[in-house]
Please model this.
Amino acid sequence: MLTYRIHGHTVPVPEQAPPPQEGPEYEARLAEFEARIARGEKIEPTDWMPEEYRRQLIRMISQHAHSEIVGMLPEGKWIPHAPTLRRKLILIAKVQDEGGHGQLLYRAAETLGITREEMVEALLAGKAKYSVVFNYPTPTWADVAAIGLLIDGAAVVNQLMLAQGSYGPYARAMKRICYEESFHIKQGYDAFVALATGTPAQRQMIQEAVNRWWYPALMLFGPPDRDSVHTPTLLRWRIKTKTNDELRQEFVDQYAPMVLRLGLTIPDPNLRYDPETGHWRFSEPDWDEFWRVIKGDGPCNAERMAARRRAHEEGRWVREALAAKAVQRINGGGDGRYAVAGL
Amino acid sequence: MHVGAVHAPDPEMALILAKEQFARRGRCVSLWVVPAEAIYASRAEEAEELFASALEKEYREPRGFRVAERVRRWMERHGQSLPEAE
Model:
């Protein structure tokens, strides 16, 4: 890892002997750190933080970034085959946004001392995870509509929560992403409703897509709380502010009615509204399938990774050309980072 | 307003990439890019001390003045009332 510079200051690099994570000085700093979080303060890159906090955030943010990039693939496939020019333009904009979100998130992860090269290498080597939902295929146009409503909808429920998190750069990136995601859901719902209120063939197509995407949407929130090893730490330090199961319930409460009111069904015989609790009761996804797919044994894992590796290889000449093109460098050498300000 | 950062080999590419990344929604009228190492910023641990005094200067804010209250008291003392109330 490199010594990482932020705005003229040097951030100590974790791999170069982090301070001992125990002892009275550590305990004192930890207490102050946790008090700051309890007060609702944001932790910034130059602040003291426990190494576990840094590690958890690097893992979470880089996996989130990978998910955005890989997430471009199942829908990107439909760009050449969109049913109308307008849908094509909308889908291009959406997929472009996802690429941009990946960039924002890699940037946020970099503030914690990991490089982009390390993160991309981990993804291509199959060592880093990304959201399980993107390992499922998109056989029809209706899958694009179902993803736009259900998967982006689930993502927003998750991301609105993450935007309240304690780590400044991640929370701020999430706010920006949520703003753009609201367009994704709207366009998804628009396409979804067009099919659901269309011909019998269109209704059947969207119904079958719902049958394929309902449980993956539930899986987006991660394993059930009882099986989530990371959740207690993430909650304690407000990296997450709600549990996977709480978010899953929020999603079902918001999105089940939207599907049902169009006269479509959801592939869950146990799904019903409980007037006593004010919540919808629902079946959990097949967790065996979840763990299998996350470990690489899903319908599209191989295809997704092959696409990413191919893109990386075929893009090599672009990276090399850009490096050769460099016309101006700051004396003393920069690391190629430019801060951006706009209005 | 600082919006983020990009990786680029030179300022021209930085501007192009910044436009793609931050001006997608077309509300931008001006975009600056600057090598990150050229920036000198205040440190997080200094912030409280550096910016604290501003919070005690209420007179810099409209809410630092209680004018309506003085007018009301004067009007009461001199038997004045608002035209609408007559």
In short: Residues 67 and 130 of chain A are 5 Å apart (CA to CA). The beta strands of chain A are 4-6, 9-11, 272-274, 279-281, 337-342.
